Amino acid sequence: MRRITRIATVGVASAALALSATACGGKSSSDAGPDSKDAKTAIAYDIGGRGDQSFNDAAYAGLAKAEKDLGIKGTEAEPSDGESDADKVQRLTELARAGNNPVIGVGFAYAPAIKKVAPKFPKITFGIIDDASVTGKNIANIVFNEEQGSYLAGVAAAKVTKTKTVGFIGGVETPLIKKFQAGYEQGVKDTDPSVKVQSQYLTQPPNFDGFSKPDLGKAAAQGQLDKKADVIYSAAGLAGSGAIEAVSKAGKWNIGVDSDQYQQKGLAAYKASILTSVTKDVEDSVLNLIKSVKDGKPETGEIRYGLDKDGVGLSMSNPAFTKMTEVITAVDTAKKAIIDGKITVKTTP
Prior knowledge:
globular
């Protein structure tokens, strides 16, 4: 697998252009596409990059699985700190010109760039995770019902707390992260109205440090712990690892996000504190899109993953969690009620 680092991203432009001219045999960029005998695909990471133990790593797992199972050659492109939409446009353009298909933007921040780049490469499928605002004939919008998984986390938190105080930490206050907050708060209150939920965000747009700086998550978690929170759910990307560290050292419960964070090697020192994680099947969504392109039937339009398709849910890796039979029963009951339409989960707080 080829990985374009933060430092090298800009420097690959001339090489990518040269590759395009050679591989395409003089075709215009809009006609560029991969050789079916040498299928290639690329993912461009969101803020925090690979190694966030969460969202980006889940996307990477899908790419790695595609390489293993489908014989795909993968390329990874890292973001740079404080980058602009123009930087993302350049990155996606380079990846498309190099013959990658599909090209997948990990995160809603890629929407403006995909809107500009996708029409220029109509034979290439562009995937975007967590955004349905930008559409096109060759755009696949991979979205999730994060609020549903977060509701289940709220049920678990309300059942487990001993102090009747739980916390939510959002990385950046965006509509997407508000879905996590809304579902969690509703799950807590529907389960036990007497439980208090402390909710806060690390940064406000256009400052996206709340997804990338662990020290911010650590400080926020410590503040909530000081106010008696004994279960804290963090939806903050790489910054969430700081929260997990603080909560673990305090001997309280974490609820992870996106990936099964109990299983993440980078969080192994704190795994005993990770009660469960709100998972999004980003791994399989990436794999499915890559496979669809390879099979000649590329997915396009909105592709939604919810509880009904096990696209979101709660991880069961921590034995301590699975032994909590009353909690598991409450979670399973809530899950069925959501799938059956008896509970409608809010998407805004």
